[in-house]
Model the fold of this input.
Amino acid sequence: MVQFWDVITPQLEAWVPTLPLFFTASAPLCGAHVNLSPKGAPSSTFRILGPNLCAYLDCTGSGSETISHIYENGRVTIMFCDFGPKPRICRFFCKGRVVEWDDQQFPHWLERLGGGLGVEGVRAVIVLDVWKVQTSCGFGVPVFAQPASSQNQGSGDLEEDEEDEIPAEPPVPDGKSFADRSTMNKWARYKIDRNELHPYMKENNASSLDDLPGMKVARRDRGETIWLGDVRARARRMVQGERLGLMVGFLLGLIAMVLMRFAA
Done:
């Protein structure tokens, strides 16, 4: 049922663009939060560039957990699942790197992902070196045999002034279980037209929930010295790791003393 590969197979390369979404998972070395994010439209935002290389467009959002975690430790897992009649789950275990929009390499990577056509508010390209691929049955994944409901087309997490300007999603077309959501593009264009996108990044993308350094451009806009902030983050991580090590060492020493007393 479970299979592993050292590379992305041609069958998986052809399968991924047919899916409606994918997921990213990441976590800090020390911290309470494990992040899991859904991403839409793999056909336009995700590219397999080689047997062990892929990348995706990372659009501006209300947090920067994946970016912060990649900057700290590089670990990221991409998961795909098929909601059609032939179930499958696939995971790419990766070492990631972040190419922010002001990086000199950003135009190169953006071009490799189709130039970002039809995708607004791209803040970075996440480049992924895939070191292991896993597939499994997916028998527990639900099947969408009927068109998804077009009810409850709520405005989600938009601000009040944004709700008036950004139209609601249209109903899902007949015969489709999923349709790409256009709200992200509309929201990003709304912010861009008002010169509010970069201030939004500055406010929301400079750090993670565990206070790890986030987007470098957002940190610079806040007046932070990047190298100094990185040193502080490393020092904090070392202290947290040493604290855990000391606690474990103390407990092991205590257990050893008790065992020695009983042995005597």
The mean pLDDT is 88. The longest strand covers residues 122-136. The chain has nine helices and eight strands. The beta strands are 3-5, 21-26, 35-40, 46-50, 53-59, 75-81, 89-100, 122-136.
